[in-house]
Amino acid sequence: xxxxxxxxxAQSLPATVPFVGPETQERARGxxxxxxxxxxxxxFGPSPRAIEAMAVEGQWMYGDPESHDLRIxxxxxxGCRPDNIVVGEGIDGLLGYLVRxxxxxxxxxxxxAGAYPTFNYHVAGFGxxxxxxxYVDDFEDPASLFAKAAEVGAKLVYLANPDNPxxxxxxxxxxxxxxxxxxxxxxxxxxxxxxxxxxxxxxxPLSAEDPRVIRMRTFSKAYGMAGARVGYAIGHxxxxxxxxxxxxxxxxxxxxxxxxxxxxxxxxYLETVLSQIADARTRIFEIAKANGLTxxxxxxxxxxxxxxxxxxxxxxxxxxxxxxxxxxxxPFVAPQNRCIRISCGTDEMLGALAMALPDVLADAKKS
Amino acid sequence: xxxxxxxxxAQSLPATVPFVGPETQERARGxxxxxxxxxxxxxFGPSPRAIEAMAVEGQWMYGDPESHDLRIxxxxxxGCRPDNIVVGEGIDGLLGYLVRxxxxxxxxxxxxAGAYPTFNYHVAGFGxxxxxxxYVDDFEDPASLFAKAAEVGAKLVYLANPDNPxxxxxxxxxxxxxxxxxxxxxxxxxxxxxxxxxxxxxxxPLSAEDPRVIRMRTFSKAYGMAGARVGYAIGHxxxxxxxxxxxxxxxxxxxxxxxxxxxxxxxxYLETVLSQIADARTRIFEIAKANGLTxxxxxxxxxxxxxxxxxxxxxxxxxxxxxxxxxxxxPFVAPQNRCIRISCGTDEMLGALAMALPDVLADAKKS
Lengths: 367, 367
Known about the structure:
In chain A, 40% of the residues lie in helices and 14% in strands. Chain A has 367 residues and is an alpha/beta fold. The first copy, chain A, folds into 2 domains: 2-44 and 268-366, Aspartate Aminotransferase, domain 1, CATH 3.90.1150; 58-266, Aspartate Aminotransferase, domain 2. In chain A, the strands form 3 sheets. In chain A, strands 2-8-7-6-5-3-4 form a 7-stranded mixed beta sheet, with helices on both faces. In chain A, strands 9-10-12 form a 3-stranded antiparallel beta sheet. In chain A, strands 1-11 form a two-stranded parallel ribbon. In chain A, strand 5, helix 8 (172-178) and strand 6 (187-191) form a beta-alpha-beta unit. In chain A, helix 4 (68-78) runs parallel beside helix 10 and helix 12 (311-323) crosses helix 13.
């Protein structure tokens, strides 16, 4: 047995993937999707300045292992110090490093049942013991999360604001207030991947120096650079410095570093895209309602739609859309699995959705 | 103390970086280097087809988590199956995953004293116990490595062929013969980052199905794409599949995937670059000899130069070059630290080296 050499932990892990990629589904169905609306990417793409920066950057050189220029710019953008910021290979990469730093075998971790599965993947990957609390009315519930953290002695608590996959959000001030009951031994990971798409009051009104929380941000969503793999974390300098113990120092793509910097420096373009995202949300709302479905309020670049029946029905809707070339996802657990999730798309993509949905629903109701 | 939450292992680790980046040095000296000859990058850059592929690829989409098209092409290139190949964020990223899969607390690992420090970084990062054997006549010594592995019960043995930092190489057939004494419980990591630059007989003449060895390859060296972060490993399918337990599935830069595929498909360009690298090696040889120094034979894209005295003298030469805007490195431990390492550069860069070296040596001899 070749893998007898694996550690006991590695042997115990399944060889799974948190999400099946759309390309995998395309290969399985033998055709490309017409509308790529399942991965919460930003179809409007990055700033032309970012595209230009990525094209001209000399890829023969390794990236700067300190991501110095980008960190300086991010610190200015957020009104904190460069020492408050670590740049990494997307939030996924940073979550992996953070879990590795903090979670040992059987250490307790708390998240919501149905929240981001890649976080759970990392917790399992380092032997942590995951505890979950349910959503409350389709919202993640800080009070329940922090109470559970106290109960199980959690080292990490995960909360996304806005939430993925539901799209709902809390005011930052409400999260800060709830943090009064965050246990002293627990670190809050606040995943703000979608926060640029949310109302201004979503932002957590706490200093980057606050040792109780580390915030995760990304260039994959509002900035339109999912393929570039640039995320960053904002937190206390001691914790930020600890990433240097384990991260892949030369792991950043050099063109992506340059592209992220250019994208950050083009805030007018970001504003334009946020407006396009808001318009696309409205359009998805209209399409859902026109078909008798219930869109949930969204502060993100996607809309979660309550299909109004059970998980089986929602799955039939999902499968019907995919069969018609519309890539969407259903990354939910009960009772949120009555829903499907649709990313903001171009007019053309959402037109394809509007065209397909009546037939899909008719078929789903028959089955 | 903010970091009291870290695991005991994480607390024990230093916040180090295996290599200080040239940008860091440039910021420290307040000026850019004129010649970037220290990181074994490929100044001749990637295929124009790769540059074009990277520029046109839609970075708003996540990369394919299976790197499917690239793996198919690599399998055809190497005459193996796609199941023998895992693509990752450079060899550095893949080494991290592999060490994580195999090395638990206090598990024994063997390498050569002075071999690739990033591998050692990963071993320390997962709590492994590193054992080293010395170089023999400036060559890594497979027989010593495998004997040490048997002695300490190593789970992993690291060997680079060609070697970095010395540039020397073994015939693949000789390594295969030495593997007869590789203990059954030990996995050999054969780091072939530079093998495209080496004579044909450097290639290991063993099947990709051989469970005793995993080979590491990269697009960072001969293919000129260090900034893109694309490496791959070739090994037994059971071991390759195990990477899916821990890897960052959506960690690959999408443009980099497309660029690597285009670069692989442009073998005529690779041949041209290999010829340029060979010419640059010859030029570095000539420069070294003209200055009374001893270049070591090199099968890589760099030349290691014996400065002929002790480590202090070599360090003075290194510092002198850096002070004159020539970025080179000295990643050696005794007795190899009598050397400096110079990457193949453009004619202009090597001209700058040739211009600076006499003064540098004169100063070093004075100090």
